[in-house]
């Protein structure tokens, strides 16, 4: 299966890159921390080499031994996996759900550093994320320029024009999800050219397109809430780099068009899946834009810093996003997060990993309704903006999946197709 090759080939590649990254920073660790830094680097590398060996030889998944706040939840989840395998041996790397062992690997990478001060705050993926951002400069510039030009006359747009602009920026945010470093095992995956020029030609590749539903939800929320409370949109982020910039532009558009009054962003609390956004990446991106030698890029950065200061943009991270659990367990495992999401008018889930966790990462029939696959996860109306990079997909029309499969066997994992898939949460 695709999962098997991911575990067998892609994950060891990622671990090898992490080890190489630590090797390369040896001098830097020495300059900053002296011998202690070098010792910590050696210990982290030995821990990661052992992890790579466990993975490649299909060893049993072992309990976490660190004292980090989420360790007990991870170990309970391992017990749950043991119960599921009921007597067929210990859960191992190749005999366990793909989603679980993949998340587990990233959690072990985090432990390798967290347990080895003084390099415990070093993000082994930071360079790759920064590189993706810089290599996507042309696309970032084009997007910021387009958006700042749009802002000049946004007050004069009628409803139809506003809708068109929303659809454009939703698509840019959707296709921005192609820039994923865990998918390419850290190889270059930047967005080279302006994403706006190719949107028309990409529409046939959106297999489920619920943009109209998002529009009517937003417009109705606005009408309902004119008198009383705020309209709130939450974006559950995926990758840093170009994708994050496309999400920030979308968020700014929602405020500037008065479709929303506040936007909440949810990122990862630890480095995750190579290119996922952490608080550091979020703030770094805004600072880099502010400092850019381009008036529209720096204008975006300045405005976005302002949105954070005014509190109309709020960044959150929560331990739950880096646990192995499906989102259907959120109400039980992280009731505080679930309660917070319930305050939202619309949840936008970015990317493939979020889609896998929304749908429990199962081999569903293509036609199973999205609502059903969510397995009672309905804190608020939600939408997945996702390019397909794993073989889980629901909510297709009868025959739609089979028809594509007949001509493109890799359609579910190539990143070529996308969905804008909505659930009203009723």
UniProtKB/TrEMBL annotation:
Cross-referenced InterPro entries: ARMT-1-like_metal-bd_sf (IPR036075), ARMT1 (IPR039763), ARMT1-like_metal-bd (IPR002791)
Matches recorded under PANTHER family: DAMAGE-CONTROL PHOSPHATASE ARMT1
Cofactor: Mn(2+); Ni(2+)
Free-text note on domains in this protein's UniProt record: Subfamily III proteins have a conserved RTxK motif about 40-50 residues from the C-terminus; the threonine may be replaced by serine or cysteine.
Source taxon at top rank: Eukaryota
Keyword Methyltransferase attached: yes
Entry function: Metal-dependent phosphatase that shows phosphatase activity against several substrates, including fructose-1-phosphate and fructose-6-phosphate. Its preference for fructose-1-phosphate, a strong glycating agent that causes DNA damage rather than a canonical yeast metabolite, suggests a damage-control function in hexose phosphate metabolism. Has also been shown to have O-methyltransferase activity that methylates glutamate residues of target proteins to form gamma-glutamyl methyl ester residues. Possibly methylates PCNA, suggesting it is involved in the DNA damage response.
Name of the protein this chain belongs to: Sugar phosphate phosphatase
One GO cellular component, as annotated: nucleus
GO molecular function per UniProt: metal ion binding; phosphatase activity; protein carboxyl O-methyltransferase activity
Gene3D superfamilies noted in UniProt: 1.20.930.60, Uncharacterised protein PF01937, DUF89, domain 3 (3.40.50.10880)
Reaction equations catalysed: beta-D-fructose 6-phosphate = dihydroxyacetone + D-glyceraldehyde 3-phosphate; L-glutamyl-[protein] + S-adenosyl-L-methionine = [protein]-L-glutamate 5-O-methyl ester + S-adenosyl-L-homocysteine; beta-D-fructose 1-phosphate + H2O = D-fructose + phosphate
EC number, UniProt record: 2.1.1.-, 3.1.3.-
One of the GO biological process terms: methylation
Protein's gene: Armt1
Annotated keywords: Hydrolase, Manganese, Metal-binding, Methyltransferase, Nickel, S-adenosyl-L-methionine, Transferase
Family: Belongs to the damage-control phosphatase family. Sugar phosphate phosphatase III subfamily.
SUPFAM superfamilies xref list: AF1104-like
UniProt domain Damage-control phosphatase ARMT1-like metal-binding: residue ranges: 6-404
């Amino acid at each position: 299966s695709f999962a098997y090759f991911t575990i067998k080939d892609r994950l060891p590649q990622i671990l090898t890159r992490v080890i190489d990254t630590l090797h390369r920073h040896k001098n830097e660790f020495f300059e900053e921390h002296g011998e202690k830094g070098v010792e910590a680097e050696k210990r982290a590398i030995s821990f990661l080499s052992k992890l790579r060996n466990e993975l490649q030889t299909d060893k049993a998944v072992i309990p976490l031994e660190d004292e980090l706040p989420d360790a007990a939840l991870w170990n309970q989840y391992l017990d749950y996996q043991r119960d599921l395998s009921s007597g067929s041996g210990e859960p191992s790397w190749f005999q366990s759900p793909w989603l679980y062992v993949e998340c587990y690997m990233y959690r072990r990478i985090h432990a390798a550093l967290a347990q080895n001060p003084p390099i415990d705050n070093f993000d082994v993926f930071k360079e790759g994320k920064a590189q993706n951002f810089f290599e996507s400069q042309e696309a970032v510039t084009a997007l910021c320029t387009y958006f700042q030009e749009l802002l000049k006359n946004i007050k004069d747009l009628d409803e139809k024009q506003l809708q068109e602009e929303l659809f454009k920026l939703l698509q840019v945010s959707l296709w921005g999800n192609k820039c994923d470093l865990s998918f390419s095992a850290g190889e270059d995956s930047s967005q080279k050219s302006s994403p706006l020029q190719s949107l028309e030609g990409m529409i046939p590749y959106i297999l489920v397109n619920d943009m109209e539903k998002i529009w009517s939800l937003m417009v109705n929320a606005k009408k309902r809430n004119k008198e009383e409370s705020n309209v709130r949109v939450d974006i559950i982020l995926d990758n840093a780099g170009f994708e994050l910039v496309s999400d920030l532009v979308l968020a700014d558009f929602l405020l500037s068009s008065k479709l929303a009054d506040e936007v909440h962003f949810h990122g990862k609390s630890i480095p995750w899946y190579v290119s996922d956004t952490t608080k550091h990446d979020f703030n770094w991106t805004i600072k880099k834009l502010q400092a850019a030698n381009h008036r529209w890029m720096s204008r975006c950065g300045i405005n976005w810093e302002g949105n954070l200061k005014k509190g109309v943009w709020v960044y959150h991270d929560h331990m739950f996003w880096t646990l192995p659990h499906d989102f259907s367990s959120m109400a039980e495992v992280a009731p505080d997060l679930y309660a917070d999401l319930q305050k939202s008018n619309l949840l936008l889930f970015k990317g493939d990993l979020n889609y896998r966790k929304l749908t429990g990462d199962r081999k569903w029939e293509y036609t199973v309704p999205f609502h059903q696959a969510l397995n009672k996860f309905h804190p608020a109306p939600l939408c997945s903006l996702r390019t397909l990079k794993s073989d889980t997909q629901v909510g297709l029309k009868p025959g739609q999946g089979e028809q594509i499969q007949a001509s493109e066997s890799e359609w579910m994992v190539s990143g070529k197709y996308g969905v804008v898939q909505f659930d009203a949460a009723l």
